Amino acid sequence: IGKQEAKLAAGGEAPSKNSQRATSCRPTVFVDVDPSARIFQEEIFGPVVAITPFDTDEEALDLANNTKYGLAAYIWTSDLKRSHNFAQNVEAGMVWLNSNNVRDLRTPFGGVKASGLGHEGGYRSIDFYTDQQAVHINLGEVHNPVFGKQTN
């Protein structure tokens, strides 16, 4: 799909038949990708990157947010103020600044929009994997109130 939609800059070869990782793909880089291309709009869970140029931070945010998905964003820059501004405005459940996919397991994991069903990780796992339930039992120590009209 990517080769039909964008310029292949690196990778893209299928693994050899003798490879133990026959279902994986080699790291692949596509450049000058049109933002409407499927490889730009969908989440790809593999070593594939789709790169498109932009002129301003606002344009970059529009490109990043103009998709139905929002699992993660990776921001690489030497300008920390700029990266914080981008992180606050990008529609993603997780943001890495000058870092790759390394996370502290005590932090929430999950996406926004069509990327997931909430967050897990840290204390949020308790809420994510459990349901609250109240059980009330009268052990005979409390008088049950009588509602409505009483007759003797």
UniProtKB/TrEMBL annotation:
Pfam family of the protein (one): Aldedh
Domain Aldehyde dehydrogenase as annotated: residue spans: 3-135
User: Which InterPro entries would you find in this protein's record?
Assistant: Ald_DH/histidinol_DH, Ald_DH_C, Ald_DH_N, Aldehyde_DH_dom
Region of interest (Disordered), ranges? 1-24
The organism's superkingdom is given as Bacteria
Listed SUPFAM superfamilies: ALDH-like (SSF53720)
Q: Single GO molecular-function term?
A: oxidoreductase activity, acting on the aldehyde or oxo group of donors, NAD or NADP as acceptor
* Alphabetized Gene3D superfamilies for the sequence: Aldehyde Dehydrogenase, Chain A, domain 1, Aldehyde Dehydrogenase, Chain A, domain 2
Keywords linked to the UniProt accession: NAD, Oxidoreductase
Q: What does the sequence similarity comment in the record state about its family?
A: Belongs to the aldehyde dehydrogenase family.
> What is this protein called in UniProt?
5-carboxymethyl-hydroxymuconate semialdehyde dehydrogenase
Q: Native species of this protein?
A: Corynebacterium ammoniagenes (Brevibacterium ammoniagenes)
